[in-house]
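Onboarding guide, step 5: your first structure request.
Type a short instruction followed by the sequence, for example:

Predict the 3D structure of this protein.
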Amino acid sequence: MALSVWLTFLLAAFAISLSPGTAAIAAMSTGSRLGLRGGWRLMPGLALGITTQMTVVALGLGALIVASATAFMVVKWLGVAYLAWLGLQQWRAPAVPMATTTEAATTQAATAEQRGLLLRGWMINALNPKGTVFMLAVVPQFLDLSRPLPLQYAAITATLCFTEMLVMTGYMTLAARVLGLLRTPRQMGWLNRSFGGLFMACAALLATFKRAV
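The system replies with structure tokens like these:
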């Protein structure tokens, strides 16, 4: 990939990552509850999800998913169900203030939540047909068919993973610093319900998403 093309894609990748979406909500939600130290495992999970999406597109399966109504609906409703489940879990999460979250980080419940972050990050990005459609529409514009495609796909995937992890770390740090000022159980309960509602709203929006005919 030519340097000028890669730099253009890098700017596009940052724009994509900075735009509010499910990953940003997940990063801020995790940061508000666990802080950056407790929630860092979400980042490689998000990157693995992007890698899965790009692999699917590179192998041509992405086009099959978009073209097949059945395959598209299966992926779509799996994503909807998972986001709705995340929303319910967040809504019902214990109202633990940030000040005591760090102290409780060694408890069995907190440790189990941290271990599940890698899978959570992967599922958020992997089970998203909108991501597949986006990659199928945008990525080919940056490919040079006269050069080896595997190396170009690798460069594009690495760039997307880098920008995603960097931006989401910023979102998580911001949430840990700013939302960490919320100390009382009542405030944390309000925050949990707010993030839970956002996850459910994302599920509702994904449910209305349709493949291009």
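Each response can be followed by summary notes, for example: The longest helix spans residues 149-178.
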